[in-house]
Automatic annotation (TrEMBL):
Region Disordered, residue ranges: 44-67
InterPro entries: Aa-tRNA-synt_II, aa-tRNA-synth_II, aa-tRNA-synth_II/BPL/LPL, Lys-tRNA-ligase_II, Lys-tRNA-ligase_II_N, Lys-tRNA-synth_II_C, NA-bd_OB-fold, NA-bd_OB_tRNA
Native source organism of the sequence: Digitaria exilis
Family membership: Belongs to the class-II aminoacyl-tRNA synthetase family.
Protein's recorded name: lysine--tRNA ligase
SUPFAM superfamilies attached to this UniProt entry: Class II aaRS and biotin synthetases, Nucleic acid-binding proteins
GO molecular function terms noted in the UniProt entry: ATP binding; lysine-tRNA ligase activity; metal ion binding; tRNA binding
Length: 617
């Protein structure tokens, strides 16, 4: 009787579901729904279709309706077990995926039946329509959807009653039978046998509206992929991109290595806008505590410094092998020990936006005896191969704009591209930082003393001012693939000085659709110069903290970190350089942003299965 009361309390909801199920290519008739009560007696209710305006009501299901449906379905689970059926199966043997059937039997004529073709499929019921002795159901698996044609004459009385009374939309069903194409041209499995593989307890989102609550989509990605099948395609594309990246770099002799996620040192000196922290802030680490070691550890903010250590150590191994055994030299060179890469998660304790997630995925790679020109070619190779693997062409649409990935890509120095966009030649300021700041304020419309001027005011060199203007004024305009080259030395602490132009470094960043995709440079291998750069970075960091302290907005207070950086934190890396690191180039590419481009996604949350979200109030 409790189930019967639940049925009466939710009759409007079930009537609504029934009427929606009846809207199809078939002629709708009044639907007769039956619910098996706890006593085993069948209660039959006539339910008239609801008006059209009530059919298309909001997709949200109230908590009471949801609980009522769950109670009814739990009762069905009990009844199935009482009849000797297990509603949560162990296995089902499939002969075909739905896409395979659609392709193999697409040639059938309307009304044609292939009784000799015995097939077995499994998937989730996403639609259900009952017409007396005939039931139509749509089953969706990982490859597509196909119709189940369920005729009473093809099933036992017990099977047909079970199908009518116990199978709901959302259940996972295994079905076998022959192949037929209906008179209306719908390829179907003419079902002869079936089994409930998983009994769904909760209702799926409204089929007219889908799951439209964006926040709920991200929090309940499993429901999102059921309600919006195209979402799963994004993650299939992502997997294909990662696979293609591996194939590409390994075809050039790179080997994959793994570096620590939990680190003793913070590796703070990768923070110079390498992957673009929200607001251009410095990358701050997540800190955790190791109970056994009784010390703080840090989640990595980059893989760079450990990968560089690999180059130092591998070169040392080659030297030892050279001394002790000449026969191993060819094996070491062929093995690609001078080319290493890692695809891994990076963690930064910073803001969340459509472009930034606190954890994201990159590939970083390092190649001995090469410079940043080599990495430009590698970046083009990786992106174009990924585009061909996912789209089959080098012209892709992104939010209505055609992006051409055909090589070669545009290459401009930072100085020249800023001058083209603003008419200001920052080289002409020499060391006059205040004049550069004044020109930047006029260009950006920033008032002295305003909160917007904090970052600009903390700039201690013309190179830093140039970078502020570039990020604010130029970067959003770089829609087609563009390499921006030769960054100022003040914002590139790990890059080798430019061989031709003083004050610049051999560094580039790759921009597509106004977003930074990659960052690379000829690696700095001089340990004395590297130590000096790190010390200067600490001074710049302290200056920015002091500038922030003068103007404290609510946002600044939320972003402020009290961590005290010290060059000694990276003393081990500096020591490794003193053993000698070969000339090398390195690059980091943001995989999430590349997937955004190739899937036409506007938010990084769309390409991360389970993004970090704000706590629900």
């Amino acid at each position: 009787m409790e189930a019967l009361r639940a049925w009466r309390a939710s009759s409007n909801l079930l009537g609504f579901a029934a009427s929606r199920a009846s809207t199809s290519a078939f002629v709708a008739k009044p639907l007769y729904l039956r619910l098996r009560c706890c006593s085993g007696a069948a209660a039959t209710t006539n339910q008239k279709p609801l008006p059209q305006d009530r059919r298309r009501r909001s997709a949200s299901t109230s908590t009471s309706d949801r609980d009522s449906i769950r109670a009814i379905r739990l009762k069905k689970v009990e009844e199935l077990r009482g009849k000797g059926y297990e509603p949560y199966a162990y296995k089902w043997v499939r002969t075909h995926m739905t896409k395979e059937l659609q392709e193999e039997y697409t040639h059938l004529e309307n009304g044609e039946v292939r009784e000799e073709a015995v097939v077995s499929i499994a998937g989730r019921i996403v639609a259900r329509r009952a017409f007396g002795k005939l039931i139509f159901m749509s089953v969706r698996d990982d490859t597509g959807t196909i119709q189940l044609y369920c005729e009473k004459d093809n099933l036992t009385d017990d099977q047909f009653e079970q199908l009518k009374e116990f199978v709901d939309i959302g259940d996972i069903l295994g079905a076998s039978g022959s192949i037929k194409k209906t008179e209306k041209g719908e390829l179907s499995v003419n079902m002869k046998d079936f089994e409930i593989l998983t009994k769904s307890l909760l209702p799926l989102p409204d089929k007219y509206h889908g799951l439209t609550d964006v926040d709920k989509r991200y929090r309940q990605r499993y429901v999102d992929m059921i309600a919006n099948p195209e979402v799963a395609d994004v993650f299939r594309t992502r997997a294909k991109v990662v696979s293609e990246i591996r194939k590409t770099v390994e075809s050039f002799g790179f080997i994959e290595v793994e570096t620590p996620v939990l680190q003793v040192y913070t590796q703070i000196f990768w923070f110079i806008d390498a992957i673009g922290a929200a607001g251009g802030a410095e990358a701050r680490p997540f800190i955790t505590y190791h109970n056994s070691l009784q010390r703080d550890l840090y989640l990595r903010i980059a893989t760079e410094l450990h990968l560089k250590r690999m180059l130092v150590r591998l070169q040392f191994i080659c030297f030892v092998l050279l001394i002790f055994s000449y026969e191993y030299i060819d094996k070491v060179q062929v093995g690609g020990l001078e080319r290493v890469y890692e695809i891994g998660r990076i963690f930064r304790n910073e803001g969340i936006s459509t472009r930034h997630n606190p954890e994201f995925t990159t590939i970083e790679m390092y190649e001995a005896y090469s410079d940043y020109e080599s990495m430009m070619n590698m970046a083009e190779e990786i992106v174009t191969r990924c585009a061909m693997a996912t789209h089959g062409k080098l012209k892709v649409d992104y939010q209505g704009t055609e992006i051409s990935l055909e090589r070669p890509w545009r290459r401009e120095t930072m100085h020249s591209i800023v001058q083209q966009a603003t008419g200001i030649n920052f080289s002409s300021f020499g060391q006059d930082v205040e004049s550069a700041k004044s020109a930047a304020r006029g260009l950006l419309g920033i008032k002295v003393g305003s909160s917007e001027s904090i970052s600009l005011q903390s700039c201690s060199s013309v190179g830093q001012v140039l970078n502020e203007v570039f990020e604010t004024f130029v970067e959003p305009t770089l829609i087609q693939p563009t390499f921006v080259l030769d960054y100022p030395v003040e914002i590139s602490p790990l890059a080798k000085p430019h061989r031709s132009y003083a004050g610049l470094t051999e560094r580039f960043e790759l921009f597509i659709c106004g977003r930074e995709i990659g960052n690379a440079f000829s690696e700095l291998t001089d340990p004395i110069d590297q130590r000096s750069r790190f010390e200067n970075q600490i001074k710049q960091h302290s200056a920015k903290r002091a500038a922030r302290a003068k103007v404290k907005s609510t946002e600044d207070q939320g972003d402020e970190d009290d961590y005290s950086y010290d060059v000694s934190l990276d003393e081990d890396f500096l020591t490794s350089l003193e053993y000698g690191m070969p000339p090398a180039s390195g690059m980091g590419l943001g995989i999430d942003r590349l997937v955004m481009l190739l899937t036409n996604s506007t938010s990084i949350r769309d390409v991360i299965a389970f993004p970090v979200l704000k706590i629900q109030q």
